[in-house]
Structures are given as C-alpha cells and as structure tokens.
C-alpha cells in the first residue's frame, strides 16, 4: 500500500515521523534506541520531541555537510509532517496505534526526498 500523503490522523502522522527520524539517523550509520522506538508508538509526546532534539539534529548536521540541498529538502519534509499536528498526542489508543504502524510502514516504504 502506498504512502497516503493526505491522511492526517495523529497516529498515522506520528508513525510517519518516527519512520522519517529512523531513516535520517540510519543514513548516518547510527540507530535510534529501541526503547525510544517502542515507546514512541504509545507516548509520542514524550519521545518524538526528544529524538528530534538529540539524535535527529546530530544526524541532520552530519548530512548537511555532505548534501546541503538534500538535507534542506528532508528538513522541509519533516517540518511539513510535524505541522500537521496541533501537538504530539500524549497517548495513542488502539485505533491510533494501528494508524501509527501503518504510517510508519508507508513512510519506510516511500523513503525520504534526499
């Protein structure tokens, strides 16, 4: 199933964000902590901002030195995704959790605009 760019359910968008963060960090040869990946599926308000401020920013800084134009596109892409949320949900119920898994899978399949 392809990425649904118009789907704006909070769970779906959070799943896309964590997948994008993981793709960014993996691009620099690092990995996101398994604890954070697991916890992000139930408590995105706690995990997503922390990951963005730490591992993702470091990875983007490394990428910027190698590919400034590609990194700017990725940063715009991430900003667009985050702007779809009024705020990060504190908890995801089972339906939103399913949307999270779907969004994560779709984003990983689609990749990022490097």
Tell me, rounded to a whole number, the average pLDDT.
Answer: 95
* Helix-and-strand structural type: mainly alpha
Q: Provide the gyration radius in Å.
A: 13 Å
Number of DSSP-assigned strands: 0
**How much helical structure, as a percent, in the residues?**
over 70%
Largest sheet: none
What is the H/E order? Answer: HHHHH
Strand composition percent: under 5%
Determine the number of helices (DSSP H or I, runs of at least 4 residues).
5
Distance between the termini: 22 Å
Outline the structure in words.
With 114 residues, the chain is an all-alpha fold. It contains 5 helices and no strands. The model has no long low-confidence stretch (mean pLDDT 95).
Concise overview:
The chain contains 5 helices and no strands.
Describe this protein with a few key phrases.
single chain; 114 residues; mainly alpha; 5 helices; globular
SSE layout and pairing:
Layout: H1 10-27, H2 34-40, H3 44-66, H4 68-83, H5 94-110
